Fold this protein.
Amino acid sequence: MFKNLFVKRRRNPYGWFGNYSSWAEVAREAVGYDAGVILERTKNAILKVKNGEAVYERDSVVFDKKEYPFPLITFLLNSANLKKEALHVLDFGGSLGSTYYQIREFLTKGVCASWNVVEQEHYVACGNQHFQDDVLTFHNSIDACLELKKIDLVVLSSSVQYLERPHDFLQQLAAYNFQFLLFDRTAFHYGEKDRLTLQRVPPEIYPASYPSWFFNEENFLNHFSGQYTNVAEFSSYVKGEETMLIDGIQSGYDKGFYLINLSTHA
């Protein structure tokens, strides 16, 4: 009886932990996103989706029933309607095209002219070899993508919180002056300052851990104040991400924002 009670109360060893003072400090404990096993599992999962053997992939896990990110789809369609032509989309940190395959039935010729994933070099090489088509392409950086395409909308889904210097990136993102920005599954918490944690991933997904930020929402959005209007806010479509535990305490949440550039859509 007491043993069972202890098991029930034992803290989940996977999730988000700590309040680190520096990226270097947490990186010493982490086995990061660049690990080869993650790429291999992700490639195999998305190949199943591409080949019709699975309907949906998220974080290298395949599903037989698709979950749609309806806010993301809605704002993609709205952006195409405002622009009056198909969009060139940049998917920052888009893996091997996870979101593209998840919503591709909505990416008609009138909505999406191209879907351009910006990722780490080994993901780009794998994407170009196995997944690139007449719509989906892969690039090493935003600048490399912009050399080939004039981007209208940037999708940032579960990506900014895994950058070493996220606020530097957000400042640079604002400087590009894109027409539309669409943040999804971005991690925030209730503290006044950003919090840096170690995220431990359950091994059934893949054996990894890496640094993960939780942002102060106001400070995050301040990068775009006066330049963009925050048209809509929405919670994560992934069950369990609306309220996230840090050190076993409910103190984080995933959220999205749809921003429109004031200079292009007054």
